[in-house]
Write a structure and sequence with these properties.
Layout lengths: L3 H12 L10 H14 L3 E8 L2 E8 L8 E7 L18 E2 L5 E3 L7 H16 L8 E6 L7 H8 L2 H6 L1 E6 L11 E5 L1 E10 L3 E2 L8 H24 L10 E9 L2 E2 L2 E2 L3 E2 L2 E10 L5 H12 L6 E8 L19 H12 L8 E3 L5 H6 L4 E4 L15 E3 H20 L4 H8 L2
Parallel strand pairs: 3-6, 3-7, 7-18, 8-17
Antiparallel strand pairs: 1-2, 2-6, 4-5, 5-19, 8-18, 9-15, 9-16, 10-14, 11-15, 12-13
The structure holds zinc ion (2 copies).
The site of one zinc ion has 6 residues, from loops.
């Protein structure tokens, strides 16, 4: 077997490529991935649906290419970081020799997963394994800024249609406990801007219907809603992914002046932005009504606009979730493979944020969110994001088991039923 330090140094190499938004070095990442693919004799292809945003597609052909394929997805971009607030620079991929923790932006979200797929394939190849069905790996751009130019374009492409994908694996979250976490759905992002207008006037005058007052009423109502949702989580009645979250992310109002803002003028416009995440089981229409009637009512001189509004339903009008019971053979195989790898899974969950998996589920494809990181604090998008080297190495074995199980599964007629209706 290969020396773990060689495996880890490849991970570090990938982490050292600065693919932070808003200017990810996509081409350097692409070059690295393609060079790794070559060493593994995988077919590779660069797709540039949007200029400057390359998508890398790798293929390990199966013995029976007519069977639905497996897609192992990851994204190459990462979120920005405040370098000076980190103990080790975010692109140093520093390996702490005492703890074995590897510090880097992307160590959890989600360069770990992208390379673990490749390392698992390396091991399978070394053992002489041959996949029965086609196995694809996609390394997508754009995830952290919405995915429209990455996953969005990919799922609409002819290339994707020809791949005949049967199951997608995408990212999950770290787990602070011994159990790994698996996700069968995710909350839909609704990015809402509410705007108030009102009569401008002297800063000393008390009068009704100012823009500020109108906006503040909305903010109060939204805060009450937020608190009620949060209470359900705090009381243990609902998981994080099962409530509607709403967080104010900006406030904008006032008349600028050289020294800051004009202090004796009540502005005629004010706005606030909210990041709302809606569970797939939520009543979308009722939330829409709530926004129009209570959060931004025309009667209070308010308007609203969505910067992003992803439907909670798939293209068939059903909640965009993947079945995690015996009706979904891919879920059963996933569980079976985890047991074989000695990986304990918690109860499947709704991912509280958003991933590219939504683009696949929206098309009715089953997708499982999974990042094998147990005993790990959740640090995605945080300072000092890290992954322990042993967790990383263990994750490779878990993927080895999953890929082997998926790629050797022979689809019997019995199991075709659930796919057929797709
Ligand atoms: Zn992220
Ligand atoms: Zn991610």
């Amino acid at each position: 077997a290969e020396d773990p330090s060689t495996i880890l140094s490849r991970f570090q190499q990938y982490l050292q490529i600065n693919t932070a938004q808003p200017h990810p070095n996509y081409y350097e990442a692409a070059e690295f991935i393609i060079s790794q693919a070559k060493l593994l004799s995988l077919e590779s292809q660069t797709l540039e649906f949007v200029k400057g945003k390359p998508l890398i597609l790798l293929k390990w052909p199966g013995n029976d290419p007519t069977l639905p394929s497996i897609l192992l997805n990851s994204h190459t971009d990462v979120v920005p970081s405040e370098h000076h607030k980190w103990t080790h620079p975010p692109f140093s991929a520093h390996l702490d020799s005492t703890t074995g923790n590897i510090f880097a932006r992307g160590s959890q979200d989600m360069k770990c997963v992208g390379l673990q797929y490749l390392e698992a394939i390396r091991k399978l190849k070394a053992s002489g394994f041959r996949p029965l069905r086609n196995l694809y790996l996609s390394f997508l751009p754009d995830e952290e800024i919405g995915g429209n130019d990455g996953a969005g374009k990919f799922v609409d492409s002819d290339v994707f249609a020809k791949m005949n994908v049967g199951i997608v694996l995408d990212e999950g979250l770290a787990s602070p406990t011994d159990n790994y976490r698996a996700f069968y759905g995710e909350r839909s992002p609704w990015w809402l801007v509410v705007k108030a207008v009102g009569a401008p006037g002297h800063g000393a005058k008390l009068y009704d219907n100012t823009a500020m007052e109108n906006l503040l009423k909305s903010i109060e109502i939204i805060r009450r809603f937020r608190a009620a949702q949060f209470d359900l989580v705090k009381a243990g009645q609902k998981a994080e992914g099962e409530v509607i979250s709403v967080n104010m992310v900006f406030l904008k109002a006032g008349t600028p002046s050289p020294s800051g803002f004009v202090m004796n003028l009540q502005p005629s416009e004010a706005q606030a932005g909210f990041d709302i995440r809606v569970p797939p089981t939520a009543d979308q229409a009722s939330l829409e009504r709530r926004i129009a009637d209570e959060w931004a009512p025309a009667s209070r001189n308010m308007t609203f606009e969505f910067k992003q509004k992803v439907s909670v339903n798939d293209k068939f009008g059903r909640p965009a979730v993947t079945a995690v019971d015996s009706s979904n053979i891919w879920w059963e195989l996933f569980e079976e493979a985890s047991i074989k790898a000695n990986a304990r899974l918690g109860k499947p969950e709704i991912f509280p944020a958003s991933t590219d998996a939504r683009y696949f589920r929206e098309r009715g494809l089953p997708a499982i969110g999974f990042s094998p990181m147990a005993n790990t604090p959740i640090l995605l998008h945080d300072h000092n994001e890290f992954l322990n080297k042993d967790e990383y190495l263990k994750g490779i074995d878990v993927y080895e088991s999953i890929i082997k199980t998926y790629a050797s599964y022979i689809q019997y007629q019995r199991d075709d039923a659930s796919r057929e209706e797709l």
